[in-house]
Specification:
The protein has four helices and four strands, in the order ααβββαβα. By secondary structure, it is an alpha+beta fold. The chain has a single domain, classed as Ribosomal Protein S5, domain 2. About 15% of the residues are buried.
Length: about 160
């Protein structure tokens, strides 16, 4: 089949399946879709104004329980422009945090209580570029502490 033919086939299949209300991600449960990202300026403002925080160097986590949402946890990632003036470094740190979260997300969702929804901000506070292992271990410890806190609290109404 030619390149043009395979493109035509993919477009045809996409149009055919667009009538269905489901989409199976090729990455499966480890995907990080838009519905899991916190991008609303209003929601982020409320999170930083009213949220609670946990620290596990070099990350700080702000979190706030919300009434309903599309995903159990929606996150945003912040890296200080003052500490990392080069955008390349800030983007690398964001990618490392996003990848660690994406891989750990399944365990996190299993540990959180059902029918409760949260907005989370992960803020990088270190002064040097971290490694993937450092970020993964820190995020695992941070989320473990957070799950313990959330599971012992009653839902806010």
């Amino acid at each position: 089949m030619s390149v043009g033919g395979s493109l035509l086939l993919r477009l045809h299949l996409r149009l055919y399946f667009s009538d269905f209300s489901f989409y199976i991600s090729p990455m499966g449960k480890n995907a990080f879709p838009r519905s899991h990202r916190l991008v609303s300026a209003k929601a982020i403002g409320l999170l930083f104004a009213e949220g609670r925080s946990l620290n596990q160097f070099p990350l700080r986590m702000m979190w706030r329980e919300v009434e309903t949402d599309e995903a159990p946890v929606r996150i945003t990632i912040a890296v200080s422009k003052r500490k990392f003036s080069r955008a390349v470094d800030r983007n690398r740190i964001r990618r490392l945090i996003r990848e660690a979260y994406r891989l750990y997300k399944g365990e996190l969702f299993d540990a959180l209580p059902a029918n409760r929804f949260f907005h989370v901000a992960l803020q990088f506070n270190g002064a040097e570029l971290p490694t993937h292992d450092q970020i993964s271990e820190t995020l695992r410890r941070l989320f473990s502490r957070w799950c313990d806190q959330v599971n012992t609290q009653t839902p806010s109404s």
